[in-house]
Amino acid sequence: MLRVGIVDIDTTHPWAIANYLNATGKAQVVAVSDSGETWPKEHVQEFAQRLTPPAQTFESAGEMLGKVDAAMFCGNRYDLRIEHVRPFLDAGLAVYIDKPAVGTLADVRRLEEYVESGARLLMGSSLPLCPELKEVWRRVSAGSPCGVIVVGWRSLFEYGIHATDAALNLMQSYPRRVRWGAFGPTECVWAELANGQDLLLYTGLAQCQWQVTCMTTEGLYSTMLNLGAFRGSHYDLLAQAFVEMTETGQTRIPARWHLEGIKLLIAAKRSRQESRTVALEELQESDGFDGQEYAEAYRAIAGQANREDYLSPNVKVLLRRNPQIGIAGPAGLLGKIRRRGLPKAKRIAGRVLGPKGTKLVKRMIRRR
User: Fold this and answer.
1) Averaged pLDDT for residues 119-128
2) Where are the domains of the chain?
3) pLDDT tens digits, 189-224
4) Predicted pLDDT of residue 153
């Protein structure tokens, strides 16, 4: 049985990942350590006790060495990541680093050295594992792709990395030139890849579904990503990929593309600052994003949230094998959508599609 330690539980990701790891039957989260960056000590203890079986808590990550075979780093302080992961990588342990792995070009270079040396290192978003992307991959790999478009939400870097991870794993090429632009609340990033294809990223929306579109010789194909935290979801597949990597040293989502995505977004930041197209070769090692600033902002948001939201859903629900989710789900869920979600859905659809979007949502609800 693979003994896994989780370092920092700042976000909602660790709870889902930990339960899916335990459900593989090949791994067990036996240790939890947290810096206190986001949550008080009692939250960390409750997190560890709610796992099945309960995990042991440690004051520092270093205390886990010798007691675990692998470690997962899920904190927001990506500016301290190298300092945190180095002892585990140097000890030869398998390591997962949640997105974004690091924030500066200098730290990207350090992780690239570990990757090149053969370290068992998985990192980044779980979105590339979404089953919906299989058809996109089939079309991109079978035809000559003209480009890929990814629509996402929130910040350019901490959430935009989801978009770059998904796109670069599909296109299997690294960025050469990047240009940033803005359209209302939406940030747009164009990248020319080394294979000559184009990548477009749209981020910054307050709420939206993740959508991936590819344009190939077969035509245009678009899919929405289902991010429900249920068995068979991207979290489940991430847990499986991590176990596979610890056993074989190979992974379905190579670390290279996550690191190339970080470079792309660092170049986008430079482009935003300088209002011009930026070549990747221009980047300086000091270029990047501030993990401390992000952690402080996240802590302020988490402080207003219900802690229970970060320890949910219930494990029995989380590991349910055949979930019914979305508008076509159970009557209880549909009732909630009608009572609470319709006004919000109408607003979002109206913002994206105009009056037609609002009418579309109404028709969909009435038909169910």
Assistant:
1) 96
2) 2-127+232-255, 128-226+260-283, 331-367
3) 999 999 999 999 998 887 778 999 999 888 899 999
4) 87
Q: Please report the pLDDT score of residue 281 as a whole number.
A: 97
SS (H, E, C) the chain: CEEEEEECCCCCHHHHHHHHHHHCCCEEEEEEECCCCCCCHHHHHHHHHHCCCCCEEECCHHHHCCCCCEEEECCCCHHHHHHHHHHHHHCCCEEEECCCCCCEHHHHHHHHHHHHCCCCEEECCCHHHCCCHHHHHHHHHHCCCCEEEEEEECCCCCCHHHHHHHHHHHHCCCEEEEEEEEECCEEEEEEEECCCCEEEEEEEECCCCCEEEEEECCEEEEEECCCCCCCCCHHHHHHHHHHHHHHHCCCCCCHHHHHHHHHHHHHHHHHHHHCCCEEHHHCCCCCECCHHHHHHHHHHHHHCCCHHHHHCCCHHHHCCCCCCCCCCCCHHHHHHHHHHHHHHHHHHHHHHHCHHHHHHHHHHHHHC
Span 2-127+232-255 CATH architecture = 3-Layer(aba) Sandwich (3.40)
Residue 356 vs residues 150, 347, 350, 359: alpha-carbon distances, Å = 23, 11, 7, 5
User: What is the pTM (predicted TM-score) of this model?
Assistant: 0.86
pLDDT band at 351 (very low <50, low <70, confident <90, very high): low
Architecture per CATH, domain 128-226+260-283, reads as 2-Layer Sandwich (3.30)
- Residue 166 pLDDT more than 80? yes
> Where does the pLDDT of residue 332 fall: very low under 50, low under 70, confident under 90, or very high at 90 and above?
very low
pLDDT in tens, 49-63: 999 899 999 999 999
